[in-house]
Write a sequence for this structure.
C-alpha cells in the first residue's frame, strides 16, 4: 500500500511537471510581450531591457521553466537589485496586472469555486443516483423511459441556457431565490447555500445524466445477481438490499466519473461562474486571459491539473473501500 | 441481447457464416425500426447535417445573407428591438431578425450550423482516427508501445481540457479560427476512444482467426488492418456518434466565451452569447440558436445510444 502510494505520488508529480511544461511552452511561444506591456507607451530600449531582465524574460525558455518549477518548491527571488521581490513557497510568481502573488490570488478565490463544485457534486449525485436506481427498479416502464430521456435531455442543454432559464424562472418571475452572491460558509451557512443553490442546480442538471445512466446500467446488472436473491431470501429490508448490495457493487465506474468531474470543476467552472457572477477561479482565469496575465493563467491551469490528478488518485484509493476485492 | 462474435462479417473475406447470422448493419437497421426515438434522432441529425452541408444553397432561400443588415426590420426607438411579433417573424424574415442590426436569423442559424457542425465533425474525425490508431497499436503491440501510449493517454486526460482550450484559443490571434479550434478540440479528445479500442484489441488479438492469420504468414500491418480493425469498427462507430455531441457542445462553449470563431462568422454558441441579454425582451432570438444546439446534441446522443446498444452490446457504460 505504502509502496503503491509512493509510486502513484511520483506519477502525479511527473504529470504536473509535464502539464506545467506544456502550458509554459504554449504561452511563451506566443507573440505577446508582457515586458513591453508593463513598460507602457514611451518606453526606451534600456528600460525595456531592464524590465525584461527584472521579469526574468531575458533568460532562455528552459531556464525560465526550471526557475519556475524550483520556485514552487523552494520559493525564489524575483527581479534584481532594488526591485527584488521575495516570493515564498509555493511561489507561482506575481500577477502582471496588479502585482499580487498568484498563489494568494488562487487561494483567495478557491473557496468560491470549491463551494460551487462540492455543492453541485452533492446535488448531481443525489439526482443522478436516485433517478438511475428508480429507473433500474422499474425497468422498461414509463417511469424508466421518462427518467432516462429526461436525463439525456437535461444534459443536452448547454449550461448557459439552463442557467438563464433558472435565473428567469426562479429569480425574475417567482422571486424564490436571491440573485447569487457569494457568502462564505463560515459567515452564514444558510445564506451560503441559498445563494449557491441556483448555480448548483444548473451544473447538477448538466452532470446528473451521466450518473443516472451509469447507475441504472449497473443496478440492472447487479440486481440480477444471485447474491441479491440470497439477500432478499434472508429477509433483509428492500432498502438495504438495493443500497448496500445492489448499488455498492456498481459504484466503481461511478466513482471513476465522479473523480474526473469533481476534479475538473474544483479549479473553477468558467462559464457558470461568469453567468452567475461568482468570483471564483474560473472568473479569475477568464479575466487573466483578456489581459494576457500569463502568471495567473499558468497558475490556474496548474491548479486545475493538480485537482484532476489528485482526484483520480483519491478515486483509485477509494476503490479499495468500495470494493473489498481490491487490494494494493 | 448478446452477440457472441463481434462484427466479423464486415471483413473483406467473409467468415463461414451461418445463413441466419445477421450482419451488424442489418441489426442497426432493425434496431432503428424498433425505436422511434432513434428514428426521430436520425431524422434530426440528417436534417441539420443537410442544413450545414448545403448552407450556401439553403441560406439564401430566405432572401438574406448572414451578414446583411436590415435596418428597416428593427425599431430604433425601442433600443433596436425587432419590429413585429415574435422577434420580427415575417414573410421576409422567417425566424425573425437580430435586434439592433436586423440581420436575418434564418440565414445566421443555417450558416451557424455549418460552422458548428464543420468544427465538430472535423474534430471528431481527428479524434477517431488518432484514437483508433493509438488504441490498436497499444493493444496489439503491448509492451513498451502500450506503456508509452497509455502514459500519453493518462497525461492528456490530466489536462484541464476546457481551461487549456480556452487559453490556447485566446492567445493565438492571427490564425484561421476554424482550423485552430478543430485542432485544439481534437487534441484532447482522443484518449477516450483510444482506451475503448485498446480494450477491444486486447480481447481480439488472441482469437483463433487472428492466430490463424498469423500462422498463415500475415505481417502485423496486414493483421491490424484486415483482422483487428474490422473487429473494432462496431464500437468505434457507436462511440463516434457519442463523441459528436460533446464536440458540438465544446465548440459552442468556446464560441459562447468569445474565444471561438470571430464575428461576423456566425456559430450557435456565439449567437446564444449575443442573445442572452435579450432573453426577456426578444425570447425568440435567444430560443432559435439554443433550440438548434439542444436538438442536435440530443439527437446525436440518442442515436449514439441506439447504435451502441447494437454494435457494442457488452460495452455498457454511460
Amino acid at each position: 500500500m505504502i509502496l503503491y502510494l509512493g509510486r502513484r505520488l511520483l506519477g502525479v508529480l511527473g504529470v504536473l511537471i509535464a502539464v506545467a511544461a506544456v502550458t509554459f511552452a504554449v504561452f511563451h511561444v506566443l507573440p505577446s510581450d508582457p515586458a513591453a506591456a508593463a513598460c507602457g507607451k514611451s518606453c526606451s530600449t534600456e528600460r525595456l531591457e531592464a524590465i525584461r531582465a527584472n521579469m526574468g524574460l531575458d533568460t532562455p525558455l528552459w531556464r525560465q521553466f526550471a526557475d519556475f518549477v524550483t520556485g514552487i518548491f523552494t520559493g525564489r527571488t524575483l527581479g534584481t537589485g532594488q526591485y527584488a521581490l521575495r516570493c515564498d513557497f509555493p511561489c507561482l510568481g506575481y500577477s502582471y496586472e496588479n502585482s499580487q502573488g498568484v498563489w494568494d490570488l488562487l487561494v483567495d478565490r478557491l473557496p468560491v469555486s470549491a463551494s460551487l463544485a462540492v455543492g453541485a457534486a452533492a446535488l448531481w449525485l443525489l439526482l443522478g443516483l436516485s433517478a438511475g436506481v428508480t429507473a433500474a427498479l422499474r425497468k422498461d416502464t414509463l417511469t424508466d423511459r421518462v427518467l432516462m430521456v429526461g436525463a439525456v435531455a437535461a444534459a443536452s442543454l448547454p449550461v448557459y441556457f439552463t442557467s438563464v432559464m433558472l435565473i428567469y424562472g426562479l429569480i425574475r418571475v417567482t422571486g424564490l431565490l436571491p440573485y447569487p452572491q457569494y457568502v462564505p460558509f463560515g459567515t452564514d451557512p444558510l445564506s451560503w447555500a441559498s445563494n449557491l443553490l441556483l448555480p448548483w442546480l444548473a451544473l447538477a442538471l448538466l452532470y446528473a445524466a451521466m450518473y443516472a445512466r451509469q447507475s441504472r446500467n449497473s443496478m440492472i446488472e447487479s440486481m440480477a445477481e444471485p447474491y441479491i436473491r440470497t439477500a432478499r431470501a434472508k429477509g433483509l429490508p428492500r432498502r438495504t438490499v438495493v443500497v448496500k448490495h445492489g448499488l455498492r457493487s456498481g459504484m466503481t465506474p461511478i466513482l471513476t466519473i465522479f473523480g474526473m468531474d469533481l476534479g475538473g470543476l474544483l479549479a473553477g467552472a468558467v462559464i457558470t461562474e461568469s453567468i452567475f457572477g461568482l468570483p471564483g477561479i474560473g472568473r479569475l482565469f477568464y479575466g487573466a486571459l483578456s489581459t494576457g496575465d500569463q502568471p495567473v493563467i499558468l497558475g490556474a491551469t496548474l491548479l486545475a491539473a493538480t485537482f484532476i490528478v489528485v482526484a483520480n488518485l483519491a478515486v483509485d484509493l477509494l476503490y479499495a473501500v468500495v470494493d473489498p476485492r481490491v487490494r494494493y | 441481447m448478446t452477440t457472441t462474435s463481434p462484427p466479423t462479417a464486415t471483413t473483406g473475406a467473409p467468415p463461414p457464416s451461418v445463413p441466419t447470422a445477421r450482419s451488424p448493419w442489418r441489426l442497426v437497421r432493425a434496431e432503428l425500426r424498433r425505436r422511434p426515438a432513434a428514428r426521430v434522432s436520425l431524422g434530426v441529425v440528417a436534417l441539420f447535417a443537410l442544413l450545414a452541408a448545403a448552407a450556401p444553397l439553403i441560406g439564401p432561400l430566405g432572401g438574406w445573407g448572414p451578414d446583411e443588415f436590415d435596418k428597416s426590420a428593427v425599431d430604433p426607438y425601442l433600443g433596436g428591438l425587432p419590429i413585429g411579433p415574435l422577434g420580427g417573424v415575417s414573410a421576409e424574415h422567417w425566424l425573425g431578425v437580430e435586434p439592433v442590426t436586423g440581420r436575418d436569423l434564418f440565414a445566421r442559424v443555417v450558416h451557424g450550423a455549418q460552422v458548428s457542425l464543420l468544427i465538430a465533425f472535423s474534430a471528431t474525425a481527428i479524434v477517431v482516427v488518432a484514437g483508433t490508431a493509438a488504441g490498436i497499436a497499444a493493444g496489439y503491440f503491448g509492451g513498451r508501445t502500450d506503456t508509452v501510449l497509455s502514459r500519453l493517454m493518462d497525461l492528456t486526460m490530466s489536462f484541464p481540457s476546457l481551461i487549456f482550450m480556452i487559453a490556447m484559443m485566446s492567445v493565438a490571434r492571427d490564425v484561421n479560427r476554424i482550423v485552430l479550434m478543430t485542432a485544439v478540440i481534437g487534441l484532447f479528445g482522443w484518449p477516450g476512444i483510444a482506451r475503448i479500442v485498446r480494450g477491444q484489441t486486447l480481447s481480439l488479438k488472441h482469437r483463433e482467426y487472428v492466430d490463424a492469420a498469423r500462422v498463415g504468414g500475415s505481417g502485423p500491418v496486414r493483421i491490424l488492418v484486415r483482422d483487428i480493425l474490422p473487429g473494432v469498427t462496431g464500437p468505434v462507430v457507436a462511440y463516434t456518434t457519442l463523441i459528436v455531441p460533446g464536440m458540438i457542445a465544446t465548440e459552442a462553449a468556446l464560441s459562447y466565451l468569445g474565444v471561438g470563431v470571430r464575428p461576423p462568422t456566425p456559430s450557435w454558441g456565439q449567437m446564444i452569447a449575443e442573445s442572452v441579454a435579450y432573453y426577456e425582451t426578444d425570447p425568440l432570438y435567444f430560443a432559435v440558436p439554443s433550440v438548434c444546439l439542444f436538438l442536435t446534441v440530443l439527437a446525436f446522443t440518442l442515436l449514439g445510444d441506439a447504435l451502441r446498444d447494437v454494435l457494442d452490446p457488452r460495452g455498457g457504460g454511460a
Remarks:
- Strands of chain B lie at 74-75, 81-82.
- The first helix of chain B runs from residue 24 to 34.
